[in-house]
Amino acid sequence: MKEAIYINREESWLDFNYRVLEEAYDKTNPVMDRLKFLAITASNLDEFFMVRVAGLKDQVGVGYTKKTIDGKTPEEQLAVLNTVTHEMMKRQYNCLSKSLIPEMEQEGIFFVTEKDLTEAEKTVVDNYFTEFCYPVLTPQAVDNSRPFPLIKNNRVYLVIQLSDPEEKNKKKKESSYLAVLEIPSVLDRILALPRPDKTAPRRYMYLEDAIIPRVSALFSGYHVEHVSAFRITRNGDLAIDEDEAEDLLIEIEKSIQQRKWGACIRLEITREMSGKLQKTLMKALEIGEEAVYELKGHLDLTCLMKFQGRPEFDHLRDPIYKPLPSPDFYAQENIFEVIRKKDRLLHHPYQSFDVVVDFVRTAAKDPQVLAIKQTLYRVSGDSPIIAALIEAAQNGKQVTVLVELKARFDEANNIVWAKKLERAGCHVIYGLTGLKIHCKMILVVRKEEDGIRRYVHLGTGNYNDVTAKLYTDLGMLTAKESYCTDVSTLFNVLSGFSHFRQWKKLEVAPHTLRSAFERFIDQEIENAKAGEKALIVAKMNALIDDKIIDKLYAASQAGVTIRLIVRGMCSLIPGIPGISENIEVHSIVGTFLEHSRIYYFYNQGAEDIFLSSADWMQRNLNRRIETLFPVEDETLKKELSHILDITWNDTVKSRVMQPDGTYARIDKRGRELINCQKAFCEEAEKQYQQIRERVDFRKKGEEGNE
Amino acid sequence: MIKRFATIYIGSGKCELIACQRGKGRISLLERAEHPITFGRQSIEKGRISFSSVRALNRIIAEYISIAEGVAVDDVQIVATSALREAENRLYLTEQIRHATGYPVRILEREEEQSLIYKHLRVMCKEIDPNFLSDRTLMFFIASRAVSAALAEKGMITYKRTYDIGYLKMKEVFDAIEAHTEDAASLMAEYTGINLMELLDGAMDKKIKSLAVSTHDARMLKQILGCPENDSSVIISKKDFEKMTSAYSSMNPSQLRRAIPGLGANAADSLRTTLMLIRGLFSLTDCETMYLCPLSINTAMMGLELYPSWAKESAAWVDASAYASAKALGRRYRIDEKHADEVERIALRLFDTLKKQVAMNERYRFLLRMTSQLLDVGRYIGGMTGRPVNRRVIQASEIIGLSKSEQAIIGMAADCVRTDPFDESLIDKEMSQEDQMCVSVLTAILKLATALDKSHSNKVEKISCRIIEGELVIMVTSKSNLQLESYFFKVSGIAMRKVFGLKPVLKIKREN
């Protein structure tokens, strides 16, 4: 059966989340890092429900029955996912209660509830409730005369069952009332209780645990019968009719408003909730029993992300890695001169993203710069890049910014920046109808002595200075005309005023990228068939495109050696006799999120290496504007080969996909322990030291001469 | 010196921007963009282009100007061709564009456009084959409104003909055929074949050894043929062409669009016509290979701006081709070539003397050469009415590099030369003052020149001229009796007196 050679993308995604969860279980990781991994799995799962599960439910809702490559209908997939997600959430809470909380307690960190509080602590909590909580708590009554209140997506609520003592004579059903209360998100979810002295254990309390015992203060005259927490997840997938959307900006704003009202996909409740209350909620939220997740602990584990980051836990996690300056740009005065000399590679987060920020910032100030063009997909809350672009526009440069408003869950943030840029005089363009602009490009046009020269940054990751410290990504800076012409032409296409699509260096989705990949793979197949060495090494976030998978299977059958480093979803199964025995799949889950996309083709020794913004996914190849660009400088090619080698040979954070689709840790026996992310950190440190010494030595020499 | 230049081309199916930089011996492409428009279709179907389309175009042009300004170009030129040229309301449209963008639109005349395409085709083919045009070559281009064929012999174009069967025109015909005929494919092929045969009628007397085609579809064809998708020309074999395009040969535009992802509606119409025409050309010429070149007015314009030496060399090639075409046309009408050459020699000597006296540029000299060669093309067909028909023949012929007004000047001068005395009433008063003056100048000179070879015997061996005190003194040396020539010289001198105010005086030196 053909289906047996593919893994369902949703199941594969959950597998990935399991691999992250493994990191939370892994006792070789410091406890707070483990807590962080747990929070990541929770946040990932939230997004999974909001997008993937919601999408499948929509498909079932409209009667769509087309099977996926692994032969499952949407309904069948939902059934499988339901079981897996229930199990996964159970394991998340097991991890917390059985592994992490005991370990935290060993470190003197305790979570307490009302009954555990000392008198002094009680007073503190009372005061906190009165001063901070009470003013922001807004209970909403539920009765027959009012509709069930709006329950916001991914927020923790309390449901309170009340009774009126004056209606004693009425039947219990008639004298019982319901109210819901949102746990305010403006307050910290976990409160730190004061310590009597520095040696005392650290005690923390969940906000709802402080509210529940005092909730009666909100309902004077009523008796609180029962309180329990719940949380819902709504359909978060944006559906914008772009053909009708005259102004995408307005349409997206409307869509964000609607997101609060998306259909309810999941209901999380605590064990304390009574069956009756559960049924009431299910009815009110129009949700089936299968979507109810009863959890053994506090709801919403994503709050642990903030908690683990508290400064008092610095000793309980690996030190936060501080990206180091790129040796190419260290102590260099003119960034453009450095790029002009030769192409430059940046490996984040080992090398600082500051170079990219400086690139835009310098361009903004440089009187020789005429224009800056940039794509923005997800930017940080206080993005220095945006600030630089605004400055550039104020300095009279022609600034064109392509803001992808449809970057999922970042739409609101993008609109704010887009408006700010517009006000500053930037030419802001809001994407193309039907296509998300996912490519990462900056173009700087500079008038130099020998004419116009353009500088380009092409990357695999977003222009986000915050995630650039957490995600592994690669970027290339070049002044080569062929690249610059392509980028310039692509910007014209993205602005919607050009249909010219002829590229010298780039391959661009959805026009040429897929055929380019197919061509490169075919070329390896031809070489293998001719008895020559044939090798493909590809690193990406996800591999679920059926056509590419089939091509890779064909390549494997032709004798091409294929090494895939796929962080997340992977629908390809390696090691199937006669189909994929020449394919190996690794997945790395480490401190940093593996995000770079590198594609290597041996090509009769020419060793073509490309970087890309695209994964091997249908959406990247068919429905997005993506770029693939070759790295041609021999030094940089060696550098990238080295990155691929080290990553492939990771023995610590790497998992190997088995022929049954499961993942197994690498057997470390007799093998050198290599943690690729740590290795890259050390290399960056070494390179930085070397360049610093060299620069210091040169400076001293110059001072001596003076 | 660094020069940056942008051209915005308004064609039938697209508006295109190219911005380039020339400096330190190299040219770099700075910006390129194109946007589909429907001007050609509107112009053909309705005879005019809607104002709303022009407003939309203005937005595109404004964006392109902004892009060009982003790379600090020294100048932006907006050029338009047939779609705008043929639109009834072109004056309104060009004014709207000028008003909205701040730049005037230069509409290329038909002959100017064609010369540009042939110049570009020649240079693009020479890039891949320096021996291009060394054989008898058929150069062919397919545009939205028209197709044109030019025969090149010994490196020069000697014959050119244009038919209004470009892809937009063909679409109308093909649509009608498809709507009313069952066997549409064979009828369309027949229609294309007949038109091609008529078009190539004057070029098929000898075997055509080489074929070069310029088309907007070159990029798409190259993709189908598995060639790199760039702006270069390519040589493809008839075998490969037929093999690779056979699957598409009987497809209609919507089938083509389904078969070739990313193919637009305009491009599909165009591709169908192009495939049919190329197939027809292969079949008619028996050529085994074809040079395929992208048709790009914008690239050609950019070439003129940024490669002055190319511009000069190409202009000289066009002039030489025009002259070769004139000679070929003369041969076709069985003129006395030796006489024409003698008249040209004498006329040029007179011109070179007179130009010091009266401001006359090199173009006058060129037109004089052309007229010398075409003086008698209508001589043997106009005898019945008694009125000369040179003008009709010349104006009905296509000569590369000659504008309509230049053809009118030559035709009129040829007619005037053949009337005695100088009949000024023949000059079309609708012509501009300058053109009328040019006709007079050419007539005055050529009347004397033809008089001096009245016997068609090339008797004048040496000739020298001087202007002395209101007289144009012409000294000729001859071994022959010049009595006949002397007589006609006297009669023809009236025109010289009228136009230049000089009395022509002939001095003959007899040599034994």
Topology:
The complex is a heterodimer of chains A (706) and B (512).
Chain A: H1 9-25, H2 31-61, H3 74-106, E1 109-111, H4 119-133, E2 140-142, E3 156-163, E4 176-182, E5 190-192, E6 202-206, H5 207-211, E7 223-234, H6 248-259, E8 264-270, H7 275-285, E9 292-295, H8 303-308, H9 335-341, E10 344-348, H10 354-365, E11 369-376, H11 384-394, E12 398-403, H12 411-423, E13 427-429, E14 436-437, E15 440-448, E16 451-459, E17 471-478, H13 481-494, E18 507-509, H14 513-529, E19 535-540, H15 546-558, E20 561-566, E21 583-588, E22 593-594, E23 598-601, E24 608-612, H16 618-622, E25 624-631, H17 634-648, E26 654-657, E27 663-665, H18 676-705
Chain B: E1 3-10, E2 14-23, E3 26-36, H1 39-46, H2 51-70, E4 75-80, H3 82-86, H4 90-101, E5 105-107, H5 110-128, E6 137-142, E7 147-153, E8 156-163, H6 167-180, H7 184-199, E9 210-215, H8 218-224, E10 234-237, H9 238-245, H10 253-259, H11 265-285, E11 289-294, H12 297-306, H13 308-332, H14 337-357, H15 362-374, H16 390-396, H17 404-417, H18 433-451, E12 460-468, E13 471-478, H19 483-500, E14 503-510
Parallel strand pairs in B: 1-4, 4-5, 6-9, 9-11, 13-14
Antiparallel strand pairs in B: 1-2, 2-3, 6-7, 7-8, 10-11, 12-13
